[in-house]
Amino acid sequence: MKFIVQALVSRLVETGNLTITYPDGTRQVFGDGTGNPVHMRLNSRKAVWGIALDPAYYLGHHYGTGDVDIIEGDIYGLLKAVFTGSPDFKYYDTFWSRVLERGRYLLRWAREKNSIVRSRRNVQHHYDLTGALYDLFLDQDRQYSCAYFERPDQTLDEAQLAKKRHIAAKLNINRPGQSVLDIGSGWGGMALYLARQLGAKVTGVTLSDEQHALSVKRANEAGLAGDIEFLLQDYRNTEGPFDRIVSVGMFEHVGRPNYLTFFKKSASLLKRDGVMLLHTIGRTDRPSANNPFIEKYIFPGGYIPALSEVMQAVEKSGLAVTDVEILRLHYAETLRHWRERFMARRDEAKALYDEKFCRIWEFYLAASESAFRWQNLVVFQLQLAHDQEAVPLTREYIGRGEDCLKAHEGNPKGDRRGARQFPQEASL
Q: What positions does the domain DUF7884 occupy (predicted)?
């Protein structure tokens, strides 16, 4: 299998400076010697076999088990060499990789058919890890989704605040007391923002015990318990109606067999003059199989959709698309911050779990950043409504809404009156 690894890597890495040492002690250098050097050591024959047969899964798996080591550079540098080392060749262009992807694609319904029980189990696998882990690398508000970088020099906390502001403006909440459903409410940051800044009455639903407990605690401490209700509940069991629906970073866990269910349920919960904002990771190319490493170790049952897959379900749900925005590279920058923060506090993560866990998460964060920076992942923001007059005719209201919110966020007394005055445009 050694010759297969050599043949594959030699086509992937035409530029750069990558050295691979094999279990028998032999080594080979790939690339043209430019850039920062990276040296990968394969410590076992099973690592050689795994990378030869299925690198999409086994590179991360064997890095986690210690069968692969990076002895110069880091795992992010290795992925950069692989993804940027050839302008004309990608791993998934090979015959064998297409066979593997086709097999995974055909089995997608079995993996992604998330019942209420299975959805809860999948969410708990990731989100019920100790909160101390997420404190190591997330912003102060624990936003575990793509930030919105208005400027390259923004801090992570500033960019996550900008993300909440951008979404709030798109929701077009125009009077106090409007009801909002937050599907997949996480640790409560979006709900707290909408209640605090806009006087909204928010219901948040999550399947994570850890997230639910902290959300309730945060609402109580903020004095917003009367404005926010967090439920440990599947969205499919939620009762409405609501003036607004927001869902940030949850749709990736729905699974393709449930797309139509998700949008039909959302349509039934949204008032006739209501607005919904969906923020989700998406792919820029055709529908495909989920990444096998991410499927096993990070997000079981999840799937990142092509826009065509989302739109097909929306069209059948009774909702209309009123706005689409593609956030390019924002998640790459978000993940860069997370990766650097995690690595700076890696010893603390190891004290919480173990070395294998840290290696798996190193690879997860580095591979995810690579996918957004050099491959096919972006973020979709879809605004949906029953009535096409539910939002103003032009997009200028978004910028004006953000300006109002930005001015109000600096109010040290927390007076919620100012941000409610969103300028409105007349509809035709």
A: 15-85
